[in-house]
Amino acid sequence: MKISMAILMLLLSFFEIGAISGNVNSSQNALNSLELKARNVSVFEENGVKLQYKTKQDMQREIYRIKEYFIHNTEGDYEEINENQFEIFNHSYNINVKIWRENKYSYVEIVLINKNSEYSTINLRDMIQKVENKESEDVQYFSYYEGKNLSDGYSINKFLDENDLKNTELLGINNGYTGTGYLNGSYKINFALIRYNKVSHIIIGTPIIFTAY
Question: Where would a tag sit more exposed on the chain, N or C end, judged by fewer CB atoms within 10 A?
Answer without folding.
Answer: N
